[in-house]
Write a structure and sequence with these properties.
By secondary structure, the chain is mostly helical. It has a single domain (22-158), classed as Winged helix-like DNA-binding domain superfamily/Winged helix DNA-binding domain (Arc Repressor Mutant, subunit A). Helix content is 63%, strand content 6%. The protein contains eight helices and two strands. The chain has helices at 5-9, 24-43, 50-61, 69-76, 80-92, 114-135, 143-164, 169-178, and strands at residues 96-100, 108-112. A two-stranded antiparallel ribbon has the order 1-2. Strand 1 and strand 2 form a beta hairpin. Helix 3 (50-61) packs across helix 6 (114-135).
């Protein structure tokens, strides 16, 4: 039976946030930042960003679903204002088109244009290669398990974010000051 890294280094008895321990927020941030930078550098010649790639992928995966700006923001786990600005740039670059939603006139439906589809196809090949390169750090037999565990952690993070809505001391303070 393999000994855990924390058992080997004697960090089991330390608080979970001790500098000597591996900490979830820091590890996730380092992983995300490094992966994002690597992808950004590999797709720069396509004149898109990793977030724009995510929009293109979301539109392709949910094609025919009449996706709105709000739904894309939700699917990307992103701020609606950030996504609105992102979509504006993508529309200017001819990747997508925004038009009034057929059922909800307040909403904007997002359509993928041919240039967006072509750009996605090129970027997808790069994304797949990058994922393969990153997963090479683990034995092939561990890839599926790692991704399953990462999905569980991602869902736990989403749940923690949902549970913390409204419990921000700053928002309570602002509400108290305005009333």
């Amino acid at each position: 039976m393999r000994q855990s890294e924390s058992a080997k280094t004697g960090t089991d008895s330390l608080p979970i946030d001790a500098p000597q321990r591996r900490r979830v927020p820091l590890l996730l941030r380092h992983a995300w930042f490094s992966l994002n930078q690597a992808f950004r550098r590999r797709i720069v010649h396509l004149s898109i960003t990793p977030d724009q790639f995510t929009v293109l992928r979301t539109l392709l995966e949910d094609e025919g679903a009449s996706l709105t700006q709000r739904k894309i923001a939700e699917l990307m786990s992103s701020d609606p204002n950030t996504v609105a600005a992102l979509l504006e740039r993508m529309e200017r670059n001819g990747l997508i088109q925004r038009r009034p939603h057929l059922k909800d006139k307040r909403a904007r439906q997002i359509l993928l244009l041919e240039l967006g589809r072509q750009t996605y196809d090129q970027a997808r090949k790069i994304a797949v290669k990058l994922q393969q390169d990153v997963l090479k750090a683990l034995p092939k037999k561990d890839h599926a398990h790692f991704l399953e565990q990462l999905a569980i952690v991602a869902e736990a993070c989403r749940e923690a974010a949902s549970e913390s809505l409204g419990s921000n001391p700053d928002s309570t303070l602002k509400a108290d000051q305005s009333g």
